[in-house]
Amino acid sequence: MIKVGxxxxxxxxxxxxxxTAKAEDIECVGVFTRRxxxxxxxxxxxNVYSVDDLPKFKGKIDVLILCGGSATDLPATTAxxxxxxxxxxxxxxxxxxxxxxxxxxxxxKENGTLGAISIGWDPGIFSMARILFGxxxxxxxxxxxxxxxxxxxxxxxxxxxxxxxxAIQYTVPKEDALKRVRGGENPELSVREKHSRECFVVAxxxxxxxxxxxxxxxxxxxxxDYDTTVHFISEDELKKNHSKLSxxxxxxxSGKTTEENSELLQLSLTLDSNPEFTxxxxxxxxxxxxRLYKKGETGVKTVFDIPLKYLYPKDPDDAFKxxx
Length: 324
Fold this sequence. Notes:
The protein is α/β, with parallel strands linked by helices and 324 residues long. It is 35% helix and 26% strand. It has 11 helices and 14 strands. A 7-stranded parallel beta sheet has the order 3-2-1-4-5-6-14, sandwiched between helices. Strands 8-9-10-11 form a 4-stranded mixed beta sheet. Strands 7-12-13 form a 3-stranded antiparallel beta sheet, with helices on both faces. Helix 1 (11-22) packs across helix 10 (274-294) and helix 2 runs parallel beside helix 3. The longest helix has 21 residues, at 274-294. It is globular. The relative contact order is 0.16.
């Protein structure tokens, strides 16, 4: 059995709990939290420990699945975890992935551990589609559209602003842009022309809403380059109308094989639960990291570096018999 630990029990941590409980080859040692241990009740009934207890589990956990946010949590904590454990995370700030990779790769190699970063559906599965589509259809352009749906990373980034009690952010594709791409126009589109962002924010009592809105709209890597709308609502309204964490999107490669023949490649996802699906992806890659570590691999990997057969829950060498 592959023994995993889950760090964090927010929406994503809950999703990982559900995914690991379904995996016949994985055993969860426990959920590790910064909150009061008694306040965390995993839906799967897993044991709960303080993150301060993690050093006691060195050598007893094969892979740590990190469920923190990308805005501030993962950049501040993963470097410490990967010194003692193999790790998998869903760091999703695209622009900062190269520097995040370089920092962790050095630490992992120095300590003989193995990590997988930016694991999810984008970055992750959609990244794989982009490299595959671009390889087989080099004369073309890539387009990625997200939503309409809740972005966990962007929602987390808003919640970390001073004066914000709770928040949900929806990424909304612009229909005109999507129509033009699917029509084979191959347009040049800015990020602003492809998506808008809609934020529903519960502010703390007496919070400066004008400042909060300004900080959201000017946040680099998240909102600054998009048409962003901010709505201030009550906690009750947020729970009533914005509690379902659905999401989805599509990767499109539009191009030509000859001047006369155009081709369109697409991979789409429709998700009732973004965190549950992301948790499932993280769990599959925890399996792969365990298998690769057993083969002597160290350092950090992305979805581009990990053979698909190592994700397979059955014998990876048998995958070709039924799936090829």
